[in-house]
Specification:
- This protein is about 35% helix and about 20% strand.
- It is of the alpha/beta class.
- It has one domain (about 1-370): Rossmann fold (3-Layer(aba) Sandwich), CATH 3.40.50.
- A nine-stranded mixed β-sheet has the order 1-9-8-7-6-4-5-3-2, sandwiched between helices.
- Strand 8, helix 10 (about 320-330) and strand 9 (about 335-345) form a beta-alpha-beta unit.
Length: about 375
């Protein structure tokens, strides 16, 4: 069943809606922060089976329904598994598809075509999936996208909905990168792969039928960390800087005693124990967690591209996004950030059933389209 759901995910499209009213009260400041509540238009109302969980009393009904489905699979906690075992667990994407099927929610037909390609990196190859809007008549902007999973789990299929949504809503080519995972490939392999993929896109933009002057980066969780690092490396290596970066609940620092870590220690689908496990899997030693590639708040953040940061309320990484937003602003980078209430880590790709995901995707697309102008 799980494999069928993952295959189905490749064909999901989660657009077909008008940009919703998540207005940004823009002021003449370098940082604009909003906390966004729900808009349930065009979403079938879902009713959870039980009360709100202790770890997330403010959770929205649709978000809770997805988490209840994820829990119902009975998978063992990731922090007690090997990486190989953890990769066999059900994912939030599985739960979304199951909830949609049970509630007779049908996704609109996809507006993009996909193809795959292996590209050479130091010590091997990585696979990229290329999303192209159907019937494109001119060179399109390009977004290089990095999936989440703590540098250890997940793949392009698990995050297909996010990449597909960005391609459809921005009207851009999206290159989703399957960087190599830990513990088979330790730090900083994922970071090096991420940059190598970006460099490949810069060099091959024309052959992709993309606009070489309009390239951005985006990523979720660990992928948000990678996207930011790609911008830093592009600046330091003096190659084309991305026009923009969209960082969705990024890993941005190593302190697991922040307020959001304390509040959401036992949250789902991400908790503190899992973050400890991811860190152990990817890093050789605990001291590497202080490396500015992992702890972005300690990196040189000057002269980076305009940045959009999206956070979820019920997420141990909520404060990571806030801290990074503040540090970027202090470094003179233009930052816009939005926090979405009542949702958890991984919500961004759930627009098929979660209203806040629709809002967040529309906001990310709006920011990227503005950058590409």
């Amino acid at each position: 069943m799980k494999n069928n759901l993952l295959k189905t995910a490749i064909y999901l499209s989660i657009t077909g809606f008008t940009f919703l009213a998540c207005t940004n009260n823009t002021k003449q400041h370098s940082t604009s922060t909003d906390s966004i509540t729900s808009d349930s238009s065009n979403i079938i109302s879902l009713k959870p089976a039980g009360p709100a969980p202790e770890w997330g009393k403010t959770i929205r009904p649709e978000m809770q329904t997805v988490m209840e489905k994820l829990v119902s699979y009975g998978d063992r906690p990731i922090e007690g598994l090997s990486a190989t075992e953890a990769r066999k667990n059900h994912t939030p994407a599985d739960a979304v598809l199951a909830v949609a099927e049970q509630n007779h929610i049908v996704a609109p037909a996809s507006k993009v075509d996909t193809s795959g390609k292996d590209i050479s990196v130091n010590g091997g190859n990585v696979h990229v999936r290329i999303y192209k809007p159907k019937n494109a008549k001119s060179a399109l902007p390009i977004v290089v996208y990095y999936h989440g999973g703590g540098f250890v789990i997940a793949n392009l299929d698990v995050y297909d909905a996010s990449a597909r949504a960005l391609s459809e809503q921005v009207n851009a080519i999206v290159v989703s990168v399957a960087y190599r995972l830990a513990p088979e490939y330790k730090f900083p392999t994922a970071h090096q792969d991420a940059f190598a993929a970006y460099e490949w896109v810069v060099k091959n933009a024309v052959s992709l039928k993309g606009d070489p002057a309009k390239i951005a980066v985006a990523g979720e969780s660990a992928g948000g960390n990678l996207a930011a690092n790609v911008s830093i490396m592009a600046r330091d290596k003096h190659i084309m800087l991305p026009l923009a970066q969209v960082l969705i609940y990024p890993i941005a620092q190593a302190d697991m005693n922040t307020e959001s870590y304390k509040m959401y220690t036992d949250a789902k689908p991400l908790n503190k124990a899992m973050m400890n496990w991811f860190t152990t899997q990817y890093l050789y030693t605990a001291i590497e967690a202080q490396d500015p590639k992992i702890s972005l708040i300690h990196a040189n953040l000057r002269n980076l591209p305009p940045t959009t940061i999206i956070t979820a309320e019920i997420d141990p990484l909520n404060n990571d996004g806030v801290m990074l937003s503040n540090k970027l602003s202090e470094a003179g980078v233009k930052v816009n950030s939005r926090n979405y209430e009542g949702v958890t880590h991984e919500f961004f790709g759930m627009a098929l059933v979660v209203p806040e995901a629709k809002l967040a995707q529309a906001y990310a697309a709006e920011q990227l389209k503005a950058a590409f102008k």
